[in-house]
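Q: I have 345 residues here and want to know how they pack in 3D. Can you give me a structure?
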Amino acid sequence: MDCFYAAVEMRDNPSLRGIPLAIGGSEKRRGVISTCNYEARKFGVRSAMATAHALKLCPTLTVVRGEMAKYKSVSQQIRAIFDRYTDKIEPLSLDEAYLDVSDCLLFQGSATLIAEDIRQTIKRELGLTASAGIAPIKFIAKVASDLNKPDGKYVITPDGVAAFVKTLPLEKIPGVGKVTLAKLHEMGLYKGEDVQAYDKNTLLSRFGKFGQSLWNRCHGIDEREVETHRVRKSVGVERTLPEDIQTESQCMDVMTSLYEELETRLKRVCPDLLIARQGVKLKFSDFQQTTVEHRQWKYDEDAFPELLVEALSRQNGRGVRLVGLSVGLIAPDDSKVSQLSFDWS
């Protein structure tokens, strides 16, 4: 999501170039920013920020309502370019994908030269720029794709992996969020080298499965391959409210109104309604959010009210600005190596 929507709009409308631009909903309808260009980011505007707040930070910000159908079409054009180089493609979203180019014979198999040619082809044919991370394993390729934006590439060779992960800030590792990072800092862990020197058993007892993943990443281990057929893991629906609500009954009314849309989406991917879990998400007036999930073997609307009550126990007097429902699907565990990670900027 690095400026992709904004880049498409600037390409199609030259008057939007060189000015602070964001794609998002109207401030009058409590909209949220989906993405913004680099001119807007200089003012502190960021994705997932309330449009009203973004306009306070940058009064000259131009906010454009997005056209998802157009972005999907452009994403398909980019995918068609990828297909010229490899059939091992794992889309992560409309604007990001892993490519395994191990079997590509172009440029004598050089991943660096292949990545550069892909970037230049996208720029020449579609008028958009792309950033690339080139590495022998997946998570490092993803991290690297963020290191030379916009319109750049970053290469970590196999011999450079150990040095790279040693100095890598833990917040750069996918899956390390604010809460987890705070816990890691409390333990004196800030970089990969800190985790390398830490007792593995203590890490596992504190973080469980994620502790193992973190230990692996900080040792340059990622055995996942590029998945050309990703299994969908969840289905969800949410609603941002025009005004904050306070009571359980108000939240229940909003939640009930989401049932039909959620079930319709769920039946498209899981007709038998056999699932792994159900969840409720609330975002409060201070933009903090909480999620409550319980294991559930079959979809059941009657399971949501109990989850809502548990989520509201964390309200602490705050208003509720968003209500969301989610269903986790039964899926095999991910386990697969990649050379390129692309993020069009």
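Q: Anything worth noting?
A: The longest strand covers residues 234-245. The chain has four domains: 4-66, 72-160+338-344, 162-218, 234-328.
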